[in-house]
Design brief:
- By secondary structure, this protein is of the alpha/beta class.
- Among the domains are: 2-244, Rossmann fold; 255-284 and 312-432, Rossmann fold; 696-742, GMP Synthetase, Chain A, domain 3 (2-Layer Sandwich), CATH 3.30.300.
- It has 19 helices and 37 strands.
- Strands 15-14-23-22-24-25-26-27-28 form a nine-stranded mixed beta sheet, sandwiched between helices. A seven-stranded mixed beta sheet has the order 2-1-3-4-5-6-7, with helices on both faces. A four-stranded antiparallel beta sheet has the order 8-9-11-12, with no helix packed on it.
- Helix 9 packs across helix 10 (351-360).
- The chain is globular.
- The termini are far apart.
- 47% of the residues are buried.
- Pfam families: AMP-binding, AMP-binding_C.
- One of its GO terms (molecular function) is 4-coumarate-CoA ligase activity.
- This is 4-coumarate--CoA ligase.
Length: 756
């Protein structure tokens, strides 16, 4: 990147830090700006990015438009991909002239102030072509609202007013000037920009007029936390790095997850609330969009697909059903913010709709395994204390008789999804990020099942990192015009894996295909072919089943659309990874590591470089810290040394609901989550899982990891799955005992094992 902007300005200052932090090259323009000299530098150093102020953009355009000999003599500038412009608004006429002069470069604007550390609105990817005249959308980590400057009341999308911003990027104040600080920063942390703006239905900001210039002698105090947020290439992908105890300060771009996808995909129908409330507002009239009609988005893909029968819900239908269901639940069932809803259902197309409707009302979602027994369900209900339950005809009998229950397969529930003129309007529900969003169930690091309490801040954090590079799936190949990311969810929707995949798919405007029938490898491959699935969400046993069916049969199904398969839940052996790569040579298998307590993935093998370490589950994802600790002394260990893995992130749970003792045992006072897993991290940051600390088999003084034995057993052609446990032995202390699931019609029996 060539920095033509002053290094003393927040614009140049932030870009300097960012380039150094991510290992990029920053070319400093040490001479006075000159258009010809700048373009020569682009050609000489093969520059890909320029950081400019509007006058510099105008100078470059005029130089190119002049068509003189000088314009031709600067050299080849084809390397130039992106020009970032900030500091002042840039006119639509100049934007068009720039695009005509530099047809292969993208011009992106942003909006920020010195008081916000850097840009807080910006364009992501190709969005700049959709909203000429806008300065982009809110970055992750911030909240924004348009306010009536006289009354201080938040205004709806499209209404003009003063822009207020809140988030960890905001300065601490004007040094030595408390009066000015109190005038611009209110007691709730909102920064009053003084700029007249509006935000359209899709969340794009338009600046109408600038505030008076600030006194140039004012100094600002920025914290290390603010600066740390500048050290990442795409600020919108990285939630602030806070301890779990301080999530109420970790203020992210707030929006109802159900509406997030619509802001990306449905610019004409869904409003993006500029206020910090998490709600589904009705569309409000807004000024005509400056986007040319030729730049309208393509037809929308389905939001959800039932992989068994092909039933689908479009994004317009999804938003309609969420609003209708929310209104019905509030008016007829009387659920309200702070309640808990227990969900006991097999995978269904309406389960994600139910999740999102409940979240929009501030009701905590608590899904459970539908195959659990009645006593198990009673314990879970006792933990979460729900006010209402949602079940099906096949599962409702397991619920306590005194718990009000709504059947998802009943006409009553189906009527809740249909909007009628008599339906009441859902009032806006203001939801703080510290409010409870979900109670998922986990055995913790050991022992009985516990209720993992996740907040809206947790969900926003994990969704932000999932839909931003480097964790979001790559775009489909250019040859598949109009294609979208379509993920087949073979994992349970009540599990953190499936739960987060659902939210991520909707927030990113992708398509989620729900496998509503029992997993079958042959059927899964047929689904991939039928719906042109691009990504699979799998557990290791499903990976093994797919590999075996491809090894045993001729490949009849067309799986050429498939790009990647995510695998989590338990470790996956290197032998299985090799076999998968052999039968699916064009599909990347991406193992990961996470817990319910961390809201999902903490390490991920999305980085292509992960392939050189097949036993690893990848590197740490954005927003996480990790260390390997001696389980006895609690001291951090160096790379390559085995110990207990500790992690910290804004995605980490608040604790186990109603169980302070277990919470304090797994979360320390500094916010570190003790995973209970024996691991090591190598010099390059790749994590290797050895086993559970408390599951190691103590055999004659040796510590034997059951996972290694299980992976070995699974290589046997007649064994579908295996579990190894310790068994007391007088001489050895403990010996490993294996339980195996045999392949149908297998003759494998006692005394025959992997030696056969």
């Amino acid at each position: 990147m060539l920095l033509t902007v002053p290094l003393f300005h927040a614009y140049g200052f932030a870009f300097c830090l960012k380039a150094a932090a991510v290992g990029e090259t920053a070319v400093i323009q040490t001479e006075r700006f000159d258009a010809k000299r700048t373009l020569k530098a682009v050609a000489r150093f093969r520059l890909t990015h320029l950081a400019l102020a509007p006058p510099a953009v105008l100078a470059l355009v005029k130089f190119r438009e002049a068509g003189c000999a000088g314009a031709a003599s600067v050299g080849d500038v084809s390397s130039l991909a992106v020009v970032t412009c900030s500091g002042a608004p840039i006119g639509t006429d100049l934007i068009r002239r720039f695009l005509a002069s530099f047809p292969n470069a993208r011009l992106t604007q942003g909006y920020g102030l010195t008081e916000t550390t850097t840009g807080v609105f910006r364009f992501h990817g190709e969005e700049a072509n959709q909203r000429i005249g806008s300065v982009g959308r809110l970055v992750w980590g911030c909240e924004a609202k348009i306010v009536n400057s006289d009354t201080g009341i938040a205004l709806p999308p499209g209404a003009r007013g003063e822009l207020w911003i809140r988030g960890p990027l905001i300065m601490q104040g004007y040094i030595g000037d408390e009066r000015s600080t109190s005038e611009i920063l209110n007691s709730e942390g909102w920064f009053k920009t003084g700029d007249l703006c509006y935000i359209d239905d899709d969340g794009f900001l338009f600046i109408l007029d600038r505030s008076p210039l600030q006194n140039s002698s004012t100094y600002f105090r920025l914290t290390q936390k603010s600066l740390r947020l500048q050290l990442f290439p795409q600020l919108h992908q990285w939630p602030p790095k806070h301890h779990h105890h301080h999530h109420h300060h970790s203020l992210h771009r707030t929006s109802t997850l159900a509406a997030a996808s619509a802001r990306r995909r449905r610019p004409s129908t869904v409003s993006a609330p500029p206020s910090p409330s998490l709600h589904l507002p009705s569309p409000s009239p807004s000024p005509p969009s400056p986007s040319p009609s030729s730049l309208l988005p393509p037809p929308l893909p389905p939001a959800l697909i039932d992989a068994a029968n092909g039933d689908a819900i479009s994004y317009p239908e999804l938003l309609s059903q969420i609003r209708s269901l929310a209104a019905a639940l509030r008016s007829t069932v009387a659920v309200s913010k702070g309640d808990v809803a227990f969900i006991l259902s097999p995978p269904r197309l309406d389960v994600p709709v139910l999740y999102l409707a409940l979240l929009s009302l501030g009701v905590a979602v608590s899904p459970a395994n539908p195959v659990s027994t009645s006593p198990e369900i009673s314990r879970l209900v006792g933990l979460s204390r729900p006010s209402v339950a949602f079940a099906t005809s096949s599962t409702a009998h397991k619920l306590p008789s005194n718990l009000p229950t709504i059947l998802l397969d009943s006409p009553r529930f189906r009527s809740f999804l249909q909007i009628s003129e008599s339906d009441p309007t859902v009032e806006d529900v203001e939801i703080r990020q510290s409010d409870s969003a979900a109670i998922l169930y986990s055995s913790g690091t050991t022992g009985r099942v516990k209720g993992v309490l996740l907040t809206h801040g947790n969900l926003i954090s994990v969704t932000a990192l999932l839909i931003g590079p480097p964790l979001s799936p790559p775009p489909p190949p250019a040859t598949s015009a109009g294609a979208t990311t379509t993920t087949l969810l073979t994992v349970p929707l009540f599990h953190v894996y499936g739960f987060m995949c659902c939210l991520k798919s909707v927030a990113a405007g992708e398509t989620a295909a729900i496998q509503t029938e029992r997993f079958d490898a042959k059927r899964t491959l047929a689904i991939v072919e039928r719906f042109r699935i691009t990504h699979l969400a799998l557990a290791p046993p499903a990976v093994l089943a797919l590999v075996r069916i491809r090894e045993a049969e001729d490949a009849a199904e067309d799986v050429s659309s498939l790009q990647a398969a995510f695998c989590g839940g338990t470790p996956i052996g290197t032998d299985l990874i090799r076999r998968f790569s052999s039968v699916f040579p064009n599909v990347r298998l991406i193992p990961g590591y996470g817990l319910t307590e961390s809201s999902g993935s903490a390490f991920n093998s999305y980085d292509p470089g992960s392939s050189k370490y097949m036993r690893s589950v990848g590197r740490l994802v954005w927003s996480f810290e990790a260390k390997i600790v001696d389980p006895v002394t609690g001291l951090a260990l160096p790379p390559g040394v085995q110990g207990e893995l500790w992690i910290r992130s804004p995605t980490v749970m608040q604790g186990y609901i109603g169980d302070e003792e277990s919470t304090s045992a797994i979360l320390n006072s500094e916010g570190w989550l003790r995973t209970g897993d024996l691991c090591y991290i190598n010099d390059e940051g790749f994590l290797f899982i050895i086993d559970r600390l408390k599951e190691l088999i103590k055999y004659k003084g040796y510590q034997v990891p059951p996972a290694e034995l299980e992976q070995l057993l699974q290589t046997h052609p007649d064994i579908i799955d295996a579990a190894v446990i310790p068994y007391p032995d007088e001489e050895a202390g403990q010996v490993p005992v294996a339980f195996v699931v045999r392949k149908p019609h297998s003759v494998l029996g006692r005394g025959r094992s992997c030696n056969s």
